[in-house]
Amino acid sequence: MKAWKAHEKATAVALGGRRVGLTGLATADVVSDHLSVECKERAELPKWLRSAMTQAVKACRGQQVPLVVLHEKGRRHDNDYVVMRRRDYVAWYGAIDSEADSGDANSVTYEPGDE
């Protein structure tokens, strides 16, 4: 299986959605009732992005969720990108199938250096 396809499948499972697959149309890679997910895989993410996430993780205390907000100079702030790690998303919001949730998703504690 191609790496990009495995990435889409793993994302669908983690988020409780379903993989759409190649349709020839401009569709999301993974969908659910409330998510439209575009999956991208690269050999390596930019070092500055990984560094920013490491900084956000180290700064977390208690139940805070690490986020990186990307802003283009001169652009509207409501179009900024908010980036979080998939495991933080799943831990905080849980899988989409709420019956599979333990109901304790909001009690995650983030440790400094946890990346």
Structure overview:
- The chain contains three helices and five strands, in the order H-E-E-E-H-E-E-H.
- The protein is α+β, with helices and mostly antiparallel strands.
- The protein folds into two domains: 1-41, no CATH class; 44-115, no CATH class.
- It has a three-stranded antiparallel β-sheet, covered by helices on one side. A two-stranded antiparallel ribbon has the order 4-5.
- The longest helix has 13 residues, at 3-15.
- The model is unreliable at 98-115 (pLDDT under 50).
Give a brief description.
The protein has three helices and five strands. The chain is of the alpha+beta class and 115 residues long.
Name the descriptors.
alpha+beta, 115 residues, disordered C terminus
